[in-house]
Amino acid sequence: MIGSLRGKLTAREPTAIIIECAGVGYEVATPMSTFLELPQIGEDVFLYMHLLVRENDQNLYGFATDEEKHLFRTLLKISGVGAKMGLAILSAMTVRDFERCVQTDDAAMLIKIPGVGKKTAERLIIEMRDKIDKAPLQVVAARADGGPGDPRSLAVDALVSLGYKLTEVKRLLAQIDPKDKSAEDIIRLALRHTVS
């Protein structure tokens, strides 16, 4: 089991990065909350890891905090919730926000996340109620680091890969002035609009 990785960040695209450790490049999927915390390419990075093994597939998922990793693993145990939905939840809200939704039975907020319907939101609340840690959880502060390429196009690609429909992405981005903003800034603002 791979519990964490420390190495050099060699590739950095929204929701998919490569960390090189001792000459081996590990492809890692991340939620946007973690992606926004990443350093620039060529710098050292440390992430908590979850290795998901399926019949014909092995995927690494990386998280900036142990709390995110724990929530992701807990979400995977719920019927109907897969890795894609787990990443979408962690991309749309902080661990603290998710905890608040569960504690206040706020299914309406969860339904705003792509792929989460009414029944899934209700199941999440019911099944997570006893699993949520009551202790205060760390909230990840987003950092804006620009990357190569057109920021708006990168933001569109990232949001579509998270499960948002292109029409919804266009609607969200129409509310944002992309001038002098990095892809991360645009993504963060778009995600805020989805949960407001």
Write the layout of secondary structure elements.
Layout: E1 4-13, E2 16-21, E3 24-29, H1 32-35, E4 44-54, E5 57-63, H2 66-76, H3 83-92, H4 95-103, H5 107-111, H6 118-128, H7 151-161, H8 166-174, H9 183-195
Parallel strand pairs: 3-5
Antiparallel strand pairs: 1-2, 1-4, 2-3, 4-5
Write structural notes for this entry.
The protein has 196 residues and is α+β, with helices and mostly antiparallel strands. The protein folds into 3 domains: 4-63, Nucleic acid-binding proteins (OB fold (Dihydrolipoamide Acetyltransferase, E2P), Beta Barrel); 66-128, 5' to 3' exonuclease, C-terminal subdomain (DNA polymerase, domain 1, Orthogonal Bundle); 151-195, Orthogonal Bundle (Helicase, Ruva Protein, domain 3). The protein is built from 9 helices and 5 strands, in the order βββαββαααααααα. It has helices spanning 32-35, 66-76, 83-92, 95-103, 107-111, 118-128, 151-161, 166-174, 183-195, and strands at residues 4-13, 16-21, 24-29, 44-54, 57-63. Helix 7 (151-161) crosses helix 9. The radius of gyration is 16 Å and the shape is globular. The chain starts with a strand and ends with a helix.
